[in-house]
Write a structure and sequence with these properties.
By secondary structure, the protein is mainly beta. The chain folds into two domains: about 15-250, Beta Barrel (Thrombin, subunit H), CATH 2.40.10.10; about 255-495, Beta Barrel (Thrombin, subunit H). It is built from two helices and 33 strands. It has helices at about 245-250, 350-355, and strands at about 30, 40-45, 55-60, 65, 80, 85-90, 100-110, 120-125, 135, 145-150, 170-175, 190, 210-215, 215-225, 235-240, 260, 265-270, 280-285, 300-305, 310-315, 320-335, 340-345, 360, 370-375, 380-395, 400-405, 420-425, 430-435, 450, 460, 465-470, 475-480, 480-485. It has a six-stranded antiparallel β-barrel. The chain has a six-stranded antiparallel barrel with strand order 2-3-4-8-7-6. It has a six-stranded antiparallel β-barrel with strand order 16-17-18-22-21-20. A hairpin with a 5-residue loop joins strand 21 and strand 22 (about 340-345). It starts with about 30 loop residues before the first strand and ends in a 14-residue tail after the last strand.
Length: about 500
């Protein structure tokens, strides 16, 4: 089991939750010479310390801070609450003076087991004047230089001599995930500190930040989740895995299932180009690997094949809104991208009249950090995350896919989500479709895609999920919402003859 920091004065500090030997707060570190505007101390009346400190926290918006999920534990075991007497001191090297002292209005804990979901938000009663820290958009890789901060205890006793008033910091690195296997680590976490454990967080450093340099500023990469036994690095929650959950919690935005399509084991959506007319036969978008006939071969495509399938379009809550049927498979490929377009037996006007949502296809591809909603009609589930990066080439089972979308870790879609639209929540347009997951950590095999960089080097990331961009469909659509692969700007893979 992973070790956790003490956050309540009502629980005895036992050997099982302490580092193996006395060490300075932020073990291996030094006193910070200057304050960090975003750095905060969460202080609770039930703290074992006279200064009230229980955990670190980081200001990510004027009225919001992020900390560890176990730092907001409470007797009622609720995920959302309005605590009494909780405060945060922000922007000071001292835990007891300076900076801003602001009351906590609300805490919101990430649902799920702590291991892998150990994140919580603190909404402040008033906005802080300090400058928030920016959030990392992707997990830092092994060997990335990292700075850690905190006011953790300096020895193994609950006595004032062990409670530092001055903020401490240490420069260390991100370690390979395998270095934290002994204490348990999930895909949504990173391993930080020295391999021997001599540089890392101690008790009451929980929720404190791991920050990395981006140009001339710091960005937040992680928050302390699990301690160590003094002989290995510590586990930090990876901020990129939760950035969209945090955004949704702060804005109260929840994606709906409206317009999602259940397609017999896959997902899909009804889509149109800007120039589509209401009288055009509607188009259904899904994956090339979701077709019912033979799949397109590598370096090939199929077009105008008869395939009759039932299509169920859902409402906001996931119940059937209306139905349609495919008349033919207009186009499908798994080379370059993984898409299929079906023509339906209803027009856009008919579907709209029946209350079905029709999505617009975005003409431009997404960039890193673009938010997205994954809307899986086949599973009746939605996820919110962001673009973690664009992969120049993704290979799987003999197929090569260009400019694939790599998600941040929030989107955890499984079987049945293939073909689900990736919707930009700000525009409502489809920017891609979900298509694959590396399930077993294998290299370039079925259900185990590998990333290939511009130098041809392959990398594998178990449990990483990917989507395909759909902007390339737009140049291939002509009047009547027909696919014309001969158009000058159409780069979709052509069918073999």
């Amino acid at each position: 089991m992973r070790l956790r920091a003490l956050v309540s004065a009502g629980i005895a500090l036992s050997a099982s939750v302490l580092v193996a030997a006395p060490a300075p707060a932020i073990s291996g570190g030094t006193k910070s010479s200057a304050p960090y505007a975003f750095m905060g101390s969460l202080q609770r009346p039930d703290s074992a310390r006279p200064d009230g400190h229980v955990c670190g926290a980081a200001l990510i918006a004027p009225q919001w801070m992020v900390t560890a999920g176990h730092c907001v534990r409470n007797d009622e075991d609720v995920l959302v609450g309005h605590p009494h007497g909780w405060k945060v001191r922000i922007g000071s090297t001292s835990v007891s003076s300076g900076g801003e002292l602001i009351e906590v209005d609300t805490f919101i804990k990430r649902p799920g087991d702590l291991q892998g979901n150990d994140v919580a938000l603190l909404k402040l009663k008033t906005s802080a004047r300090a400058q928030p820290v920016k959030l990392a958009t992707s997990k830092p890789t092994a060997a990335t230089p990292t700075r850690i901060l905190g006011w953790g205890i300096t020895c193994d006793e609950l006595k004032p001599k062990c409670f530092p008033d001055h903020l401490r910091e240490a420069d260390t690195v991100v370690q390979p995930s395998t270095a934290c296997d002994d204490v348990g680590i999930q895909q949504s976490e990173i391993c930080v500190g020295s391999l021997d454990g001599k540089t890392g967080p101690t008790n009451m450093d929980s929720g404190g930040p791991a920050i990395v340099r981006s140009n001339d500023s710091w960005i937040l990469a992680g928050t302390v989740s699990g301690g160590n036994t003094g002989q290995q690095p510590a586990v930090y929650s990876a901020i990129p895995a939760f950035r969209t959950w945090m955004y949704d919690a702060m804005t109260d935005r929840q994606p709906s299932l409206e317009g999602a399509v259940d397609l017999d084991g896959c997902s899909g959506s009804v889509v149109r180009a800007n120039n589509a007319k209401p009288s055009d036969p509607a188009l259904l978008l899904t994956n090339g690997h979701c077709v019912t006939g033979d799949r397109p071969a590598p370096k090939a495509a199929v077009a105008n094949r008869v395939e009759k399938r039932k299509v169920t379009v859902l409402n906001r809550t996931g119940k059937p809104k209306t139905t349609a049927a495919t008349t033919k498979l207009v186009y499908a490929t798994m080379t370059g991208t993984d898409v299929a377009l079906y023509q339906l037996n209803k027009t856009y006007a008919q579907l709209t009249a029946e209350g079905a949502k029709v999505f617009k296809l975005a003409a431009m591809g997404p960039r890193e950090a673009t938010p997205l909603d994954l809307v899986a009609g086949g599973l009746r589930k939605t996820w919110s995350c962001a673009v973690g990066g664009v992969v120049p080439e993704l290979r799987e089972e003999g197929y090569a896919l260009r400019n694939a979308i790599r998600y941040t870790e929030d989107c955890r879609a499984g079987a049945g989500a293939s073909g689900a639209p990736l919707v930009n929540p700000h525009t409502g347009a489809v920017i891609g479709i979900h298509n694959t997951t590396n399930e077993l950590g294998r290299v370039c095999t079925a259900s185990n895609p590998c990333e290939v960089d511009s130098q041809g080097r392959k990398t594998v990331h178990k449990a990483r999920r990917y989507g395909q961009q759909t902007a390339g469909i737009i140049p291939c659509l002509t009047s009547g919402s027909r696919v014309d692969l001969s158009l000058p700007k159409c780069t979709l893979t052509k069918p073999t003859t």
